[in-house]
Amino acid sequence: MNQANKALFIIFGGTGDLAQRKLYPSLYRLYTKGFLKENFAVIGTARREWSDAHYQEVVRDSIHSLKVSDEHALEFSSHFYYQAHNVKDTEHYNTLKKLADQLDGKYQIDGNRIFYLSMSPTFFGTITKHLKSQNLVTENGFNRVIIEKPFGTDYESSKALNDEILEAFESDELYRIDHYLGKEMVQNILTFRFANPMIESVWNNHFISNMQITLSEELGVEERAEYYDKSGALRDMIQNHIMQIFSLLTMDAPKSLSTNEVRKQKMLVLSALKELTTETVQSDFVRGQYTRSLDNKLCGYREEEKVADDSTTETYVAGKLELNNERWNGVPVYIRTGKKLAKKEAQINIVFKQIESSLFSKGDTAPNILTIYLGPSEGFSITLNEKKIGLGMDTDIMQFDHLRTESMIQESPEAYEKLLLDCLNGDRTHFAHWEEVAASWKFVDKIRTTWDASTNKLATYPAGTAGPEAANNLLEKNGHKWIWNPDQH
Ligand code: NAD
Predict the structure, then answer these.
(1) Where are the domains positioned within the chain?
(2) How far is the CA of 375 from the centre of ligand 1 (A)?
(3) Which helix (H) or strand (E) holds 270?
């Protein structure tokens, strides 16, 4: 039997896309599994004037494909209340407090509050300041704030934002979302590495030649052009998701899986990152932008609505990361991400060294490759060498796949569901800690400032392809190549 939680969620941005697509369905899943029962309520706030009845209808629409029955959906949505609210208006917080206190009593929530900031980051500081000053923070229960990305646009702005939020909340009350950390297969990295001595014993520079992290997107900027054009792939994907995956992949074993021990190891590895110079940024990082597709069906980035026709924002980044520590000296970690590529896919490839052998020459065998499929496919595969069937001792490649079925993936909890439950449980392991955020901003800022000062042109790639050719050259000069490519099927 799952433990039911007591909590009042106050969602800022309750009419928004994220709330409807992710938050309400995730809350519903927690409700159907018994993690939320009678003692919870949700206040959705946003500028629009909505009635509770309309809001509840929106919530029911958002869970339409998941609902157990109409009655169950009605029961769930009856816990939702709407309050029109302008986050800059102090008086509105007083109205919000009255409703919050009233619902706290009605549902016997014991003062537990989760404030979910699902709106533009420019408002994060204003909201937290008002939550404190207008006494929405309770004395008797827990108070937790979930903050959406992006957390700043560089180190300076993220530090200012962090300091501002810390004036109202304690650092252990902050839950910075990086939804990749809630993904099944990203969480599986630690289990796969540390629960398997066979894997962990070869997880070092004696055996591994290079590692590759790819987050390839098929979609373009969609409705987010205004935000994206100021951000670009470096800030949108590398600073957070890729740097988090990188640290899980390269960190040493933590003493336990507790929040502090995992963080300690992530920080050690982030601080071992080889410092970038203007020269290494120029030689080891590639930025690209998509142009019109070869078949003319997909428009180029500069043709997208709300994107300037001379925009130099990168929609693609590839790069080489190196670590100065005993385990990883000499092992490049190649990273890449891009929009409007040929295929949506997130995967990690670990390429093992080919050991010199008197029995087989290098040309006769292939490197062992381990692939971790993060999504939409989920699972693992490994390639090994075997004897080819027949006369003689020729070799062949064999591949072991362990891929989750469509129904297993459908049934496994969604990232936001897990992260909301973690927050209810007070577990911050799968959230981004300030020190991690700061370290990765500092790393990424060096790339940004070098690019901004450079007169080098952006590489381009036609929409629907594998990305710019320069990303292949990046590996070829070290004698490596990308194991997976977006245009291979
Ligand atoms: P959205 O534009 O769809 O929603 C923004 C919400 O903020 C709306 O409810 C709007 O009414 C409200 N709002 C705006 N100004 C307001 C004001 N002055 N007072 C009160 N309410 C106001 O945005 P979204 O896509 O839902 O994103 C929300 C947050 O989540 C952003 O930080 C975004 O970067 C982040 N995020 C979204 C996604 C996604 O898939 N949508 C993914 C990752 C991160």
Answers:
(1) 7-148, 181-417+432-477
(2) 25
(3) helix 259-271
Mean pLDDT, residues 90-115: 97
Q: Which of 123-132, 220-229, 351-360 has the lowest mean pLDDT?
A: 351-360
What distance in angstroms lies between residue 317's CA and the mean position of ligand 1's atoms? 26
Segment 131-171, tens digit of pLDDT: 999 999 999 999 999 999 999 999 999 999 999 999 999 99
Token representation of residue 115? 């404030």
CATH topology of domain 7-148: Rossmann fold (3.40.50)
47 known member of a binding site = yes
Sheet holding 395-403, edge to edge: 395-403, 379-387, 369-375, 345-352, 208-216, 333-338, 316-321, 285-291, 459-462
Nearest CA residue ID for atom 15, ligand 1: 47
The whole-chain average pLDDT of the chain stands at: 96
What is the helix, strand, coil percentage profile of the chain, to 5?
Answer: 40, 20, 40
Give the model's pLDDT for residue 469.
97
Angle formed by the axes of helices 259-271 and 434-453, nearest 10°: 30
Task: Provide residues with CB under 6 Å of ligand 1.
Answer: 13-19, 46-48, 85-88, 118-121, 148-149
User: Is residue 309 exposed (0-12), middle (13-18) or buried (19+ Cβ within 10 Å)?
Assistant: exposed
For 229-256, the three-class secondary structure string (H helix, E strand, C coil) is: HHHHHHHHHHHHHHHHHHHHHHCCCCCC
Q: Are 232 and 221 in contact (CB under 8 A)?
A: no
433-459: pLDDT as tens digits = 999 999 999 999 999 999 999 988 899
Q: What is the CATH number of domain 181-417+432-477?
A: 3.30.360.10
What pLDDT was estimated at residue 489? Answer: 63
Distance CA 392, CA 388 (A): 8
Report pTM.
Answer: 0.97
Tell me: pLDDT of 223 over 90.
no
